[in-house]
Amino acid sequence: MAVKPIFEKENILVTGGAGFIGSHLCDELIKKSKVICIDNFITGQEDNIDHLLKNPDFEFVRHDITEPLEIEKLSELRKFKVKFQGIQKIYHLACPTAPREYNKIPIETLLANSHGTKNILELAVKNKAKFLFLSSSAIYGEPLEKAPFKEDYWGFINPIGPRSCYNEGKRFAESMVMNYGKKYNLEVKILRVFNSFGPRMRLDDGRMIPDFITAALEGRDIEIYSPQEATSTFCYISDLIEAIQRAMRSNFSGVVNIGNPEELKIINIANEIIKLTQSASKIVFKKPLPFTAKQGLPDISLAKEKLGWFPVIPLGEGLKKTIDQMKGKSRVVGIENINFNK
Predict the structure, then answer these.
(1) H/E run at residue 276
(2) Residues 26-65: pLDDT tens digits?
(3) Are 289 and 162 found together in one domain?
(4) What is the CATH number of the domain that holds 287?
(5) How many domains, the chain?
(6) Which residue in 329, 313, 228, 323 sits closest to 279, CA to CA?
(7) Which one of 91, 140, 166, 236 is the catalytic residue?
């Protein structure tokens, strides 16, 4: 098969492009490429991409990836000459990611990682496109020892537990990606992403930092569903987006961890948020929820070696940017009455 011509810019497909990570990725890709954003808004949000809709190099397609996608037949993509140029790169991020809703959308989560991943891989095969899959540290399960997770660790997972639809879904998707890559000689990359945070995170999906910030801005108790000595790691969104782009540009194919290896006490994160918001909130500890899990640490040696990547944004700086964006969210009751500049 002859290589399709590339006109003035590459055509890039981003599934889950209206989500927290996907929308930030689209912001960067649109600077040099034509971007096709796919989402069905199960956990993505339209306001994440509103600012991109008038850009002539951006096109949003509302579609459930568990259904086949015949991209070349979409009339709205004629301007990208997809029928002639095809798609050069695919970033597959689409997966419902809302810990508080795992028990509400388990089948949707499993199908996105199985049927959905297969459908997008078929597009990659048809277009001979480079393929990047955003996996998760969840495939490792809970740590059995203090050592950071390396890519060659197989994981300790409960296949029928409260988080199984997400954890096992990601594990199956990784297997699908790797086997498609081998069978069809595709260039595939898998990024196992550890905790990340930043502007545009949903305020209601059960993630720790948005929950803490929302509580602090409303003056409510900050509830920590873990022991007082519990720790975790957090990577700011701009560092994560840089890692994703470096991975796609690199010659590296395979699996790589992406995360911040700095281990932080959760209570210290809560106290920092209270300080930055000038909140009167108090910290209370509660019994862990069913969908919560003990977090492991990332070993990012391979990311440093193969991608030349490591996180550079300090937690405090990332929290300030996240809080500034969340203060503008109308869904957070009472924020407009707080004086943050005193």
Answers:
(1) helix 266-277
(2) 999 999 999 999 999 998 899 999 999 999 999 999 999 9
(3) no
(4) 3.90.25.10
(5) 2
(6) 323
(7) 166
